[in-house]
Amino acid sequence: MTVHTPPQSYMLRDIVEVSAAPSVSWMPQTIGWKVVGVIALVCILVWAYKSFTVWWSNRYRREAMASLNLIFEACKSVESTDSAYRQQISQDVYGVLKLVLSAVNPQTPSLYGLPFLQSLDAQTQPIHDIFESKWSHWPDSLLVKQNALTKAELLDLIADSQGWVKQHAALAKNVQGEMSDA
C-alpha cells in the first residue's frame, strides 16, 4: 500500500478537494408523483384484468377453432365415395357448432334443423344469413346417409363455420365492451 502524500509543488499545496454531492434518490420527492404512480398502477391493473377476462371468456372459441381445424384436415383426407365418413365429419361440425351456440345462448341446446340454423344466423350481423339460406339441406344430410354432403360441400361448410366462429368472436367482444361500460 502506498501512503498518500501531499503534492510537493507550491502551487498545489493549498488546493482543497471538493466533496461529492449526495446521490439523488429515484423515489419522487413530492406527493404528486406518488399519486400519479398509483393512478398509473391502478390503470395497468384494470387493463390487465379486463384483458384477462376477455381472453378467458373467449377460450371456448379458441377450442372450437382448433376442433374445426382438425375436422378440416380430416375432411381433406377423406375419399369422395365414403359417405359414412363424410356424414360423420358433418356430424362433428354440427357438434362443434352446437357446443359453441350452447355456450353463447344456453336456451339453444334443444334446437335442430331450421331453428338451429336460424339461431346461428341470429348471432351474426343481419346481412349474413348464410346458414339458413345456404345450408338448409345440411340437417337432412346428418340423418340420411344417402344425402351426405360431398367433400367440396363439407370443406365449404367448415370454412363457413370457421368464419362464423371468428365473426361471432368479434361481435361478442363488442357486446362485452358495451356491457362492461354500463
Please give the structural blueprint.
Elements: H1 31-57, H2 59-76, H3 83-104, H4 114-122, H5 130-134, H6 138-143, H7 151-181
Helix pairs in contact: 2-3, 2-7, 3-7
Would you mind describing this structure in some detail?
The protein is elongated and about 115 Å long. It contains 7 helices and no strands. The protein has 182 residues and is mostly helical. Mean pLDDT is 79; it is low at 172-182. It has a domain at 60-181. Helices cover 65% and strands 0% of the residues. It has helices spanning 31-57, 59-76, 83-104, 114-122, 130-134, 138-143, 151-181. The longest helix has 31 residues, at 151-181. The N and C termini lie far apart (75 Å). Helix 3 (83-104) packs parallel to helix 7.
List keywords for this structure.
182 residues, mainly alpha, 7 helices, 0% strand, disordered C terminus, transmembrane, DUF4381 domain-containing protein, transmembrane helix
Can you give the helix content as a percent range?
A: 55-70%
Mean pLDDT: 79
Rg (CA only): 33 Å
Shape: elongated
How is the main sheet built?
none
* Separation of the first and last Cα atoms: 75 Å
What is the ordering of alpha helices and beta strands? HHHHHHH
Please report the total strand number as a whole number.
Answer: 0
What fraction strand? Answer: under 5%
Number of helices: 7
Structural class: mainly alpha
Unreliable segments (pLDDT under 50, ≥5 consecutive)? 172-182
